[in-house]
Design a protein that fits this description.
Blueprint lengths: L3 E3 L5 E2 L35 E3 L2
Antiparallel strand pairs: 1-2, 1-3
Length: about 55
């Protein structure tokens, strides 16, 4: 699964880890992360993330 990085703070969303503290279960692909979810470090939205190549 693809990882996504926050362009503001550099936090990486890894589907194998998810973000359980903020309601995103382990194994959740980026496409299934809720649109209202925000970066746990800097609180920007999903539109501020880029796929890690």
């Amino acid at each position: 699964m693809d990882k996504w990085v926050c362009v503001v703070c550099g936090w990486v969303y890894d589907p194998e880890i998810g973000d359980p503290d903020n309601g995103v279960e382990v194994g959740t692909p980026w496409e299934k992360v809720p649109e209202e979810w925000v970066c746990p470090l800097c609180f920007v939205g999903k539109d501020q993330f880029e796929k890690v190549e």
